[in-house]
Every structure is written in C-alpha cells, then in structure tokens.
Amino acid sequence: MKKFSFPLSRVMDWRRTEARMEESKLERHYAELHAINSREALLNEERSQSELAVLGQSSTTGAELSALDGFKRYVAAERVRIERDRLACRKRIVEQLQVVTLKRRDVRLLEKLKQDRLVTWTADLAREIDQQADEAYLARWNR
C-alpha cells in the first residue's frame, strides 16, 4: 500500500497561515487598546500633578488658577476622545475575534478531516497486512 498523503495539506497550511495573520491583527488591536489605556493613565497623572503643583502652593495667582482650569477642560475633552478611541478599538477587537474564530475553525475542520483520513488509511493498511499474511499462510500451507 502507498504511504499516507493528505491531498489538502497545502490548503491546510494556507489556512494556518491565514489564521496566524488574523491572530497577529488581533494582537495589534490589543496593543492599541493597551496604548489607549496608558495614554489615559498618563493624562490622569499629569492632571493630578498639575493640581498638586498649583493648589499645593501657599500663594496661587489667578493666572495659575485660570491655567489649571484650562488644563482641566483639556483633560476632560481628551478623556472623551480617549473613551471614543477605546470603544472603537474594543469594537475592532470583537470583530477581529470573530474572524480569528472562523479561521481557527477552518483549520480545525481540515485537521479533523486529515485525522479521519489517517484513521481510515491505517485501518486499510491493517486489513491489507492481514490479507497478505493470510495469503502467505495459505501459500505455505498449500505446498
């Protein structure tokens, strides 16, 4: 009997490559979300430091309070932008998770098909070996 070969192995390799590419896109989206969260944490830290610097002084001028108020408005607007970016990024992550799930399912389907074919081939090989052993026994017995 000929050795086992899976005719769809190149397709399976291509599907694995596609799945890895989609997984790397997902990783990039997660990295983007992490960067957004880091940007928000840095913004919060800058706001806290500014408030401590201005309000922690014994004498604060009106210009300093006005600048602090302007910075607080900037921080509030930036938080809105950050939240909008975060929501958009999470949406892309959910969409990409669906794509990755489909690609992985395609790979698993081909792997299962290959496994089923290997089981069938192994059973056929065992039957052929048994048949050859029976024929050899009968040939020796007939002599």
Can you walk me through this structure?
The chain has two helices and no strands. The chain has a domain at 9-105. The chain has 143 residues and is mainly alpha-helical. Helix 1 packs antiparallel against helix 2.
Classify the beta-strand content into a percent band: under 5%
Low-confidence region ranges: none
Mass-distribution shape = rod-shaped
Q: What is the element string, with H for helices and E for strands?
A: HH
Count every beta strand, where a strand is a DSSP E run of 2 or more residues.
0
Structural class call reads: mainly alpha
Q: Could you tell me the mean pLDDT?
A: 93
What layout of secondary structure does this protein have?
Elements: H1 9-55, H2 62-142
Keywords:
143 residues, mainly alpha, 2 helices, 90% helix, 0% strand
Summarize the structure.
With 143 residues, the protein is an all-alpha fold. Helix content is 90%, strand content 0%. The chain has helices at residues 9-55, 62-142.
